[in-house]
Amino acid sequence: MELIKNLARAAGAAAQCLGRKHQKTAVLNRLRTVVRCEERALQKEYLALGRYYYNALRDPENPVAEPHCKAIDEAEKRLDVALSHMQAMTSENCIGIIVAPGEDGDREEIDLSDVEYYDEEP
Q: How large a percentage of the chain has pLDDT more than 90?
């Protein structure tokens, strides 16, 4: 009879230990989620602050910030060129159509008319 009581106590202790382990894992997962959300919030705020600085407080005499501002200017110019090329290509006769080679070599048309564009403001 004592053997059964010892086994029951051991099983209960193991179950409690396992329960504490799962509880600890759940708390850690929640904390990881909170950390990720806060890091994303910080990134958004830093981006907003950087845009504000770039647009309102830019100082051409600042030797630390000005190279970064010039890099942004150059990247915006490259982006504008790429967007204008993209606009020129899509304004031709095949608006919204991508021609892709099929499995047997002939070309199939893929219509993108049902695709919605989503642009999130940072």
A: 48
Burial 56-91 (b: 16+ CB within 10 A, else e): eeeeeeeeebeeebeeeeeeeeeeeeeeeeeeeeee
98: closest CA among 106, 88, 107? 107
Residue 5: predicted pLDDT: 81
Residue 111 region by backbone torsions, left for phi larger than 0, else alpha for psi between -120 and 50, else beta: beta
- Name the residue among 113, 118, 56 with its Cα closest to residue 90: 113
Cβ atoms of 104 and 98 closer than 8 Å:
no
Rounded Cα distance, 97 and 81, in Å: 22
Output the average pLDDT for the chain: 82
Lowest mean pLDDT among 9-13, 63-67, 71-75: 9-13
- β-strand partners of 109: 99
